[in-house]
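Key idea: predict the complex, not the pieces.
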Amino acid sequence: MQQQQKEKKLKFFINDDIDILIEILKRLDGRSLCVAACVCRLWRTLARNDSLWEELCFRHVSSPPPSSVRPVVLALGGYKRLYMVCLRPVLSRLGLAELTSHRVKRTWTRDELQLSLSLFCVHYYERLGAAAAAGDTDRSLGECDASTSSLMFLCKPVNV
Amino acid sequence: MKREHSQLDPPPPPPSCLAGPSGKGKMWEEEQTDGGGMDELLAVLGYNVRSSDMVEVAQKIEQLEEAMGAFQADGINHLATDTVHYDPSNLCTWLESMLTEFNPTMPAGLGLDPVPAPSVFDDSSFVAPAESSTITSLDFSHQRVLEEPSTSDYDLKAIPGKAMYGANNSQNSSNNYLSLSSASASSLSSSTTTRENKRLKTSEFYPPESTRPIVLADSQENGIRLVHALMACAEAVQQNNLTLAEAFVKQIRFLAVSQAGAMGKVATHFAEALARRIYGLYPQSPIDHSFSELLEMQFYETCPYLKFAHFTANQAILEAFDGKRRVHVIDFSMNQGMQWPALMQALALRPGGPPAFRLTGIGPPAADNTDQLQQVGWKLAQLAESIHVEFEYRGFVANSLADLDASMLEIKPSEVDSVAVNSVFELHKLLAQPGAIDKVLSVVKNIKPDIFTVAEQEANHNGPVFLDRFTESLHYYSTMFDSLEGSVNSPENHKAMTEAYMGNQICNVVACEGADRVERHETLAQWRTRFSSAGFIPAHIGSNAYKQASMLLALFAGGDGYKVEENNGCLTLGWYTRPLIATSAWKLAAKR
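Result:
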């Protein structure tokens, strides 16, 4: 009897249904997504998918962003980096942070998005400078953990 | 250290000054004394003091107590163990030996009348503290004669008018110096340099009734004193009374150390600038340009002023470039090119796609002959490639903007290129050379830009009278330093570099004259007059810029103090009520 019960319990395993898992992860907020990335290897791989973070970035924008935004953001380092380095601190500073406990979420406008993108671009430019200074221009910028300090006034960038 | 009040009540002066430092008396054996003039009551306790000496002993004990009071507790421990006393029962000589321990320069006779000996200055040690390592020989041709027997540095009664020190205060402040200088142990660190300690002469300035030394703990009062000292010093410089000014500079340094926070830092910088002016030490060895660029980068990172200027100028340029397919920006203030990534990104994302973007950067020659401008251009090109913006770059090295000509810049006709000219904190430097600003403005007119964006410090540091300049810059930089104090996020070394950046500006405003004084800031109203008479009309910076700037400032920690204001189409950034930076945009009158 106990064995049958155990088998029943083990029948459903979320990792077997990646599509459902992705749908769930898409709806998480930033912090939960980071936590999810620490669960297991599969989840970590999925959480690194930039489109999840893109969803997160634009979830509460009042109007959807133009299609030209994506290539620019990807070129500057991707949506995850945009979120971690610029969007999250900007939103929290401006009092627009998502409150997981409450359902009330303010929408934020194109202006905040524009500002974040500008800051993100400056950040990228500084990383370029740091990479050049390090003399190692072949290294991909993603690995460059230089002290890019123009965004210091926001927060210390965290590598997730 | 408390006085032990004894119950003894002998006729002559204060018997309360008995066993001096705590515990010593008990170490000594009681001695039989004979009657030979010795005070009997003290003799009971083992002290041999002649009745006739009682007055002197009392006074010496008072001085000793005072001198010891000036020490911190751990400074006098050595006295308990290291000093050698001969015949400790003889209070007179013992007290003298103790006092000479404290004050080796004091003459043995302890003349209690102030005999002002001629003040001889140790000239070689008279250096500005921060520069002592680099200056070996000083030109003292401007040096006043310092050997005047009747005046000492601290005779502040000589100050007429606005000086805030009355006779009492001068006495007290001289006591301060005395108690400082009498510290043979350097446990007292309140004076700024030990050099200063050595320079102070103590022997001749020991007043008979010494009051307690004033401990500089009341910082609010000292803050007021500091400001007054600064103003008095500037006035002395204005009147060319350099001896007096020197005295004030020392005073300022002393007071500045006791002030924590922005006021102390500002005062230290101003004191150094004043010292430079007095001793004619400017121009110092030319500042390495790459170092000054590094300082400017730290300034960019720690406070929002440069970012504000960049963002607002970019917004104005973006709006002027609306709908144009090819654009050309001429930047008078290239430096590290921090302004342009944001503009390129905004151009990349504008509806209709990015235009072809051409950038001409103008900057001074680099000291180490490397092509800084080209490196900056290369970085920008990389960025442009990443975000798919067609990019072209040209760097121009020029010692001064006035050396430029419109023809050098390869301006294409306006049907092809839409041109913008940008200048951040560069135009005021041209005011140092006569005619330069007019030449540059005429060059800009020849370029025929669609927009000319200018960001400048909002202050009048270019008045003809030194005292006015000094007052204005004191207020301005105090506000700047105040705003910097609020920014808690930056690490200390970054803040220090930002402060050094501003300190350089302060030195230039206060200490230099003529062609060297390049920090000739002028107010927005003054620039408006200048531009209008040169044929420009204002282009109003729109509300988008205002919104962006406000949002940007809200992001800064301690950002409650920053205020963006609109001033007739120009945007100013200030700290509380004081505007500090102003951005304005201009177009040619003919182009409508």
